[in-house]
Amino acid sequence: MSDLTFETESHASPRSVEERTALMANPGFGKVFTDHMVIARYSAGRGWHDAKVTARAPLPLDPAAAVLHYAQEIFEGLKAYRTADGGAALFRPEANARRFRLSAERMAMAPFPEEAFIEAQRRLVEIDRAWIPDTPGGSLYLRPFMIATEVFLGVKPASEYLFVTIASAVGSYFKDPTGTVTVWLSEHFTRAAPGGTGAAKCGGNYAASLAAQAEAARHQCEQVVFLDAAERRYIEELGGMNVFFVFGDGTLVTPPLSDSILPGITRDSIITLAREDGLTVREVPYTIDAWREDVRTGRLTEAFACGTAAVITPIGRVRGREDDFTIGNAVAGPVAQRLRTRLVDIQRGLAEDRHGWFQRVF
């Protein structure tokens, strides 16, 4: 158990109701931030300390802070949802807390206590409850992160860290949450390699994906699909999402977890819900050649991406330097739609939760 205690320093001049309402009218994704944040500090010999909820403000950072030179940084993403009775709930925060700890260990950082991680999210949701949208598809996106703050130039794990959680009122990740996306097959760039940091949620993985994402955008694609780094044959994941393939016989296939694939919490939830619905889920390698052939023969009927931000987003078209094929009729398929509805209903407290995923905050 963690003995870290969070003090509260309320914002002296939070945004007015009118200003907040105007900002939340069309928040987009990741652009509208709440009034408060949570911070805690770590130093070797003292451990985690000085935890508090305070006014959101810029972080003072020395130019020689280790994060700026050696990229010791990790983050998470989870959401708070408005419930029908006006309350709020988190979805599987303990899974995010565990992954945050594992990411820290992979990056040779001081692990943040899992109980304190969950408490930080709850405290921020409570104090900034007015920022939770009650519009369809709206939620409060929570971004916990940790950076190395020790002032030094030298390649070694830092001895000082800062934990922060900020929050953002958000709408849907993609412009049309009911439609499909077009993805670009990256044959030159790779996201992660065996033995690397692909299973950790660190900024470097996302930085490595940006050139491929920019290439996708130049070809009018919303996302990029990465192949494995060793053979350039096997589908791994999208730039920030896991991927599933749906077959006409009721089977779902998703790439197996490895040290180059992020263990998505939405991915894990979908596997559980799909099996409850009587679908067969296979976590097995799947090649780009198989994807092409299964679409050509009609054996594959749907494909979709999934993640905290995007929830479940059907893939309608795949493009590449030598590829251009459409999945089904390029519309959201019934399996993706059904799983999305089940997942969202649990997240918002509208359906029975058999797994303890739905955790009310207030």
Structure explained in plain terms:
With 362 residues, the protein is of the alpha+beta class. The chain has two domains: 7-170, 2-Layer Sandwich (D-amino Acid Aminotransferase, Chain A, domain 1); 181-347, D-amino Acid Aminotransferase, subunit A, domain 2 (D-amino Acid Aminotransferase, Chain A, domain 2). Helix content is 26%, strand content 29%. It contains eight helices and 19 strands. Strands 1, 2, 3, 4, 5, 6, 7, 8, 9 and 19 form a ten-stranded mixed beta sheet that branches. A hairpin with a 5-residue loop joins strand 6 and strand 7 (88-91). Helix 3 (93-106) packs across helix 4. The longest helix has 16 residues, at 203-218. The chain is globular and about 60 Å long. The two termini are 23 Å apart. The model has no long low-confidence stretch (mean pLDDT 96).
What does this entry show, briefly?
By secondary structure, the chain is α+β, with helices and mostly antiparallel strands.
